[in-house]
């Protein structure tokens, strides 16, 4: 039975998780997720790779986009190494390429993710916003996802294994409040659109109050809920063991600075699925209705085949 952690402890753990250690000019190691089981969360690898890229970026330049490809599933309990290449340094823009790798059974490093990040020196320019924030209930009127998870476990009773209960009830450093019904709790097919509010479970420490960390936390959280959007029209869920899936790629465009410890609305949609893949898009808004980031991801999505015997 796990010990319940305070929100401040969970967020402090997230900050440690996203703090990469320099082993050389362009080489870094990132810590493991304490108590992690199975495959590494994709958002963790993206955020840590972004942190490695940000650590080598020229002073005064800020990340405005990243593009990542997942090559293999990362294993929990094994250190992840990040190697950065300084592909371009200009007066206004710079580019960094990061390879995340883990040792295989023979001790050889195998890439699990490739990420490219682009940086820009902040400047004034032509500006427009041709997007409206969805009109949804504010987070104060919604139950937390953890409340709904506890209710689901209570209703399920003995139908859930101890491992499933621990996975569902595992405390998270990101607090989420879902506007729509949680897709993995409902089997009715519906429109491939979803809306969730998110923020860190407690304020980020003032000493860590830098835009680079907030971008990394937003990148971490952007992998939540996204892939599940393409499953909504099919009424199927990974949580119920009806699907087999994995993220294939992930892209983020950072439009304006934002705090990850203040409520942000994540509006996702999935315009297409087919060929064993699902394509998903996300828009992240602040409480003022401003678009702060755009996200896109394609993932493998296959219906699980039950085998006899």
Q: What would you note in describing this structure?
A:
The protein has helices at residues 7-17, 42-56, 145-156, 162-168, 211-221, and strands at residues 21-22, 27-30, 62-70, 80-89, 93-103, 109-120, 174-178, 193-200, 243-254, 264-274, 277-285, 291-303. A hairpin with a 4-residue loop joins strand 1 (21-22) and strand 2. It starts with 6 loop residues before the first helix and ends in a 6-residue tail after the last strand. Helix 2 runs antiparallel to helix 5. A 12-stranded antiparallel β-sheet has the order 1-2-4-5-6-3-9-12-11-10-8-7, with helices on one face. With 309 residues, the protein is of the alpha+beta class. The chain is built from 5 helices and 12 strands. The chain is 18% helix and 34% strand.
Which descriptors apply to this entry?
309 residues; alpha+beta; 5 helices; 12 strands; 34% strand
Q: What's this entry about, in short?
A:
The protein has helices at 7-17, 42-56, 145-156, 162-168, 211-221; strands at residues 21-22, 27-30, 62-70, 80-89, 93-103, 109-120, 174-178, 193-200, 243-254, 264-274, 277-285, 291-303. With 309 residues, the chain is α+β, with helices and mostly antiparallel strands. A 12-stranded antiparallel β-sheet has the order 1-2-4-5-6-3-9-12-11-10-8-7, with helices on one face.
* Share of helix, binned: 10-25%
Question: Could you describe the largest sheet, including whether it forms a barrel?
Answer: 12 strands, antiparallel
Q: Largest sheet, order of strands side by side?
A: 1-2-4-5-6-3-9-12-11-10-8-7
Number of strands: 12
* Assembly classification: single chain
Shape assignment? globular
Instruction: Estimate what percentage of residues fall within beta strands.
Output: 25-35%
Mean pLDDT equals 91
Q: Can you tell me the residue ranges where pLDDT is under 50 for at least 5 consecutive residues?
A: none
Give the radius of gyration: 19 Å
The number of distinct helices, counting runs of at least 4 residues, comes to: 5
| Global structural class | alpha+beta
């Amino acid at each position: 039975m796990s010990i319940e952690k305070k929100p401040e402890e969970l967020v402090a753990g997230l900050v440690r998780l996203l703090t990469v250690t320099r082993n050389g000019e362009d080489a870094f190691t990132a810590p493991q997720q304490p108590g992690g089981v199975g495959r590494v969360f994709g958002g963790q690898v993206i955020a840590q790779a972004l942190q490695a890229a940000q650590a080598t970026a020229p002073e005064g330049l800020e990340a405005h986009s990243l593009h990542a490809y997942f090559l293999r599933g990362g294993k929990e309990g094994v250190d992840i190494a990040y190697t950065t290449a300084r592909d371009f340094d200009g007066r206004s823009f710079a580019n960094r390429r990061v390879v995340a790798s883990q040792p295989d059974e023979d001790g050889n490093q195998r890439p699990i993710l490739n990420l490219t990040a682009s940086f820009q020196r902040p400047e004034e320019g032509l500006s427009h916003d041709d997007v409206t924030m969805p009109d949804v209930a504010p987070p104060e009127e919604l139950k937390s996802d953890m409340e709904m998870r506890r209710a689901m476990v209570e209703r399920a009773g003995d139908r859930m294994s101890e491992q499933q209960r621990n996975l569902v009830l595992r405390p998270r450093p990101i607090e989420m409040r879902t506007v729509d019904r949680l897709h993995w709790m409902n089997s009715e097919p519906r429109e491939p659109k979803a809306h969730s509010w998110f923020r860190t479970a407690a304020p980020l420490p003032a000493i860590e109050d830098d835009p680079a960390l907030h971008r990394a936390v937003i990148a971490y959280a952007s992998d939540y809920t996204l892939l599940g959007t393409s499953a909504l029209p099919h009424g199927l869920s990974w949580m119920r063991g009806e699907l087999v899936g994995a993220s294939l790629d992930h892209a983020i465009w950072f439009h304006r600075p934002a705090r990850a410890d203040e409520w942000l609305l994540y509006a996702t949609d999935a315009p297409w699925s087919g060929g064993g893949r699902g394509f998903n898009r996300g828009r992240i808004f602040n409480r003022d209705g401003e678009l702060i980031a755009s996200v896109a991801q394609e993932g493998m999505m296959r219906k699980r085949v039950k085998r006899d015997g």
